Hints:
The structure holds two protein chains of two kinds.
Chain A (H helix, E strand, L loop, with lengths): L2 H6 L2 H12 L10 H13 L5 E6 L8 E7 L2 E7 L12 H4 L1 H5 L9 E3 L8 E3 L2 H19 L4 E5 L5 H10 L8 H18 L17 E5 L9 H12 L3 E5 L12 E3 L6 H14 L5 H7 E2 L1 H8 L4 H8 L3 H14 L3 E3 L12 H14 L37 H4 L12 H10 L7 E5 L3 H4 L3 H9 L3 E6 L4 H4 L3 E4 L10 E4 L5 E4 L13 H11 L10 H10 L5 H6 L3 E3 L20 E2 L3 H5 L19 E6 L13 H6 L4 E5 H7 L6 E6 L8 E6 L6 E5 L41 E6 L2 E3 L20
Parallel strand pairs in A: 6-12, 7-8, 7-11, 8-9, 10-18, 12-13, 13-14, 19-23, 20-22
Antiparallel strand pairs in A: 1-2, 2-3, 4-5, 4-14, 15-16, 16-17, 19-24, 21-22, 21-24, 24-25
Helix pairs in contact in A: 6-21, 7-21, 8-15, 10-13, 10-14, 10-15, 17-19
Chain B lengths: L3 E6 L8 H10 L8 E11 L2 E10 L17 E6 L6 E6 L2 E3 L6 E3 L9 H5 L6 E3 L12 E3 L5 H5 L5 H5 L5 E5 L3 H8 L16 E4 L2 H11 L9 H10 L19 E3 L10
Parallel strand pairs in B: 1-11
Antiparallel strand pairs in B: 1-10, 2-3, 4-5, 4-12, 6-7, 8-9
Amino acid sequence: MNRRHFLKMSSATAMAVAASTMDGLPGQAGLFRSAQAQEIKSFSTGSLGATEVTSVCEMCFWRCPIVVKVKEGKIIKIEGNPKSPVNGTRVCARGNSGVQLVYDPDRVKTPLKRVGARGEGKWAKISWDEAFGEIAHNMEKVKKKYGPHALAYFDHGASAEFMRGIFKAMGTENYTSEPAFFQCVGPAALAYLQTVGYVTTGTRQYNDMANSKAMLLVASHIGENVHVSHVREFIDGLQNGSKLVVVDPRYSAAANKADIYLPIRPGTDTALMLAWINYVIQNKLYDKEFVANKCDGFDALKKEVNGYSMEWAAKICDLKIEDMKAAIKELAKAAPNVNIHPGRHATWYGKGDTGRHQAYAILTALFGAVGVPGGIYFPTSVKTGKAECPEPEKTEVAETDISIKDETEYPFSSMFGTATRDLFHAMLTGKPYPVKLLGVNGVNIMQTLPNPYDTMKAINNLDFIFCEEMMAGETAIWSDIVLPDSVYLERYDGLYAYDGLTPYLTVRQPAIKPLHNVKSPYDIAKGLAKKLDIEGYSCKNEQEFLNEELKGAGLSLDALNKQGGLVTYKGNPYRDPKSLKLGTESGKVQLYVEAFDDEDLDAIPKFDPTPAPPKGFARLIYGRAPMHTFSRTMNNLWLNNEMPENKLWLNDKIAARLNIMDGEEIIMENQDGKRSNPIKVLVTPGIRPDSVFMYHGFGSKSKHLSRAYGRGAADGYMMTNVVADPFIGADSKRTNFVRIIKGDKTLNIPELAKVPSEIPRFKSKLA
Amino acid sequence: MKQYAMVIDLDRCVGCHACAVACRAEWQVPVPYRRNWVNRLGPAQTSKGISFTFYPGLCNHCDEPACVPECPADPVEVTFTDQKTGATKTMEVAATWKDPFNGTVQVDRRRCLGCGACADACPYGARYVNPDVVNEDLDGEGIVDKCTFCMPRVEKGLPPACVQTCITDARIFGLIDDKDIAEYVKKGAKRLESKGVKIGPNVYYYGQPKDLELLDKTSTPQELLASSGRRRMFAQMVKPSMKQAKNIGLIGLAGTLLVKATETKSPGDE
């Protein structure tokens, strides 16, 4: 109790209590004497006068150049590196909050060994030597018993790169199941690679929004999905007068800025795209010269899309035909300076995800928007050296009669690695061969993959699982050994070369010494290699190989630091359309992808509808919250404070029918009877009545994350129906449906938007 | 008088919350208190269509601040200096005041009793009392804190922390008659004012009409709290005889301030 609280009481009570305080009864005052002096001092000066270290952010994979401010050995603030051509002095909420990742009390502080059941989160603290010894022992044991391919690596982000070499040196083929590909951009990357000959949308996205005259976003919610340079280019485009068309079942932050918003029925985007492509061809809105000289397969395309009329699409997509026409005319008017944006996360419906992105690439080409301002552009690589010393000396995939990659049903997966679903299938069934040891690095294995129930089963089939982690999250509680990783602010890493519109070269470097008993990713790989007698990893430290690699750019760490930690280069993003030569076999855009046809897949996308929600259910869709990254930042003191839990967006008309109030807490039940954590409802007209929406990454099941545990609900735990993309085996995540449990009542979602007969309905036993 | 002001362009804002966090980092504002916030609004129906927008808020450094007259701390005579012209002005101020040269509303943290009267009076909720720090010699109960428009940074030629980090350059800071700001005001930037609350806030919001409508509907205060004499009286009652600070150079405020103790009647005594 303090005086402020007394003053909030009724006057009579307050009078009495205030009087008693004057009599000298103890209050809170006086308890924080030393804090006062310190605090007043810091309030006076803010971050002024701090020591500055330039570095690279890793609060997400976009990796903005930063300046870290240190006072009295403590990181107090992070700003953008003013020398950076992409973000300047700016960092997003997450970039600002890196401070609290370092000082998070729930960090993994020392190597841990599981003592309870997997998933229980009971550990004993062990030494690094013991941790490396346990992992090495189990890797060797599994390799001896089942062969090298029984070892697998599942990873994401900067922490993961050095350890990949260990798995390569052990001889396994299973070190390339990156969820960043098979759970995210995979279908888009394949579609663009086959159509325009390069991956326009991988880690980087070569979309010139700032110089566009019109942009199309299909469910891409730039602004809620925050990558600083990307968001800046988007906003610059809008401020320069670019017209924005947003297609999304949800009214996103981007939709709010749209000139034309199309609240499409989920799962019908390809129908809209094909009708638009047909309209563009029929009305001769395409770039005749570009199509004639730089595209193969136009006649086949014209014939294939001929049946997709605007009238048909309006019915399928539940859109107004005038709006659809206005949108495509607006985009056509801007050609060739038009940005048909691929979005980012592409694994929605399994079937049709690659085709949908192929359609974006086709529309891009029809508008001649390849290598021109406002369209897709070409990366400019920055020349650096290559150091051998941060890797094992020898790596060779062991020979095998049966390869997961060859046995796969997904003909294009092996171009990129082992499909996640093939790897987990092997863990679950032992086919085509058993996978018995998993190393996880930088991935929340329960929330990155759909169907965590299967993931748990797969993990329980393993002989051994270990992870490298900063936080004691869901991956850690399922691991046998947890290796604590230093935070990006405590370490060096690889070299960062940006190949976008304004190329630059920069480097991550530590602002402080690592806290606790943690090691850098390089030292972890090096330590484990030593235990396994793997030769290599011969650099003394990270500086040694960084200097080696910088030498190739005519630099050194010292020289780079003298130039503000970052050097810029001239970009070469555009091409003269006349001399344009693409990376496809013919050097032209492939409107018809023969390689797909060779595998009995559609060479030109077709509309193959994903099933509509069962009666009484709504489709679950999800997206990114701007102040959170995946499920990684929910425990961060500052970010948690900005958004501690997610909400379920429920259409206002549905909410009125079900008598659900804004802010009310409910539970979701999916089509297979799986139930969610309690979650509060956001009643809004900004979501279609046949869908619900939530931000991804909340509802952690790790009790060790004191702020994030049980706050909000996790979308992944509602995903038990998973459909494979037939091209690469990517896993669908928008093929699940929920209804609402309020108190002891099960509430069916009434159907307000009629489903046309062309779209089949998902069959649920519960419907 | 010069007046610092800020424009927040909601057409540029994507609601990323970088501003709120950068402010927290810069001034070490403890969770859950705030000098600077982003409230997420909607998506909700307006008379002009659906809006999904944001209320990035901070102290408005009002023309007639509701908070300043509420401060029960013993007034002291302070000489303010205009950094540019060197002009001075001497005024009697309590522990919070409006600067006569740059229009910012500031707090003397070392004379704050933490009674919270100013925080309660602010219709925008822009002040908080941090109970974890106190002025012991004043038998304080906490210390009030709020946005200073980052005057310590501005004096060094730096933008406010929230402006510097804004990823889309949606925050424009300067003097009210600076070209950038004046242009926004001319083309319709709005203040969060109502019939009941017309105290001249100096933060302006620009955006699509639907967004400004939702912002206004959800975030404009409709009435000022009736001046709480009782509150000030209590603060006076519980306040011990203040050890009056003499000639303290206030750090981090615009200009060099000289604080001179006075024996004037405190505002609660009328």
